[in-house]
Fold this sequence. Notes:
The chain has helices spanning 2-9, 22-33, 35-47, 71-82, 84-92; strands at residues 18-19, 55-56. It is mainly alpha-helical. The longest helix is centred in the middle third of the chain and has 13 residues, at 35-47.
Amino acid sequence: MIKLYQRFSRHLPQHCRYYPTCSHYTQIAVQRFGVFGLLMGLSRILRCQPFARGGFDPVPQHFSLRRNQDKIAIMKVSEKYYGQTAQQNQIKH
């Protein structure tokens, strides 16, 4: 279902507040946590509203329905997506 949605949404303008997108987040969460990953994905979709700050929000290493708050884990994952400069920028802030 997720892959079907991703194929369909490719033709729509991008409007996701988070990176990775909610569908990609759900896909990773399901791979890590099975059925509980669907709950994480649903929680992420519910957080995606006009007043959300959005931004980089990778799937946490441990099951959680809240936004990933582990700054060290976020820096490690951001290095994968953005390279060393993103990690240096996050340390300064």
